[in-house]
Amino acid sequence: xxxxxxxxxxxxxxxxxxxxxxxxxxxxxxxxxxxxxxxxxxxxxxxxxxxxxxxxxxxxxxxxxxxxxxxxxxxxxxxxxxxxxxxxxxxxxxxxxxxxxxxxxxxxxxxxxxxxxxxxxxxxxxxxxxxxxxxxxxxxxxxxxxxxxxxxxxxxxxxxxxxxxxxxxxxxxx
Length: 174
Hints:
Blueprint: H1 2-21, H2 26-37, E1 103-109, E2 115-120, E3 126-129, E4 134-135, E5 140-145, E6 149-157, E7 163-171
Antiparallel strand pairs: 1-2, 2-3, 4-5, 5-6, 6-7
């Protein structure tokens, strides 16, 4: 007996709900017609594009504006000694990276052995280097390793078709 009354109740509720859907849409149609009758707006054209003049950067051989300035006294070469990079030397792995991308992460030393430095490269790897190894894009040769600092001598253009040695250093970063 319960089952027929449930079916009857569901049928009655469905009929009531569908009755609400049979209402007229005259008010909606009249509102839509009023919107269609309004004059259409005008879209403004985009502003005229004026191309900027191109600029050719011609100071690529000078010091990077993002590198710390170097005293002119440090750039003085020893008299009688000609400084030139050795382009015939095979390039070492850490010479692929700018010096600013390299980080000194620590040092290692075996008993009675030389001091090695641990350098984090631009790819996140760590490389072991010693005095005499090269790193950076400017022929940077490692001159000295201390427990907290790596002294480097780079060979950079002097701006007069010559070369000059520039001292740089990497400090232990925490």
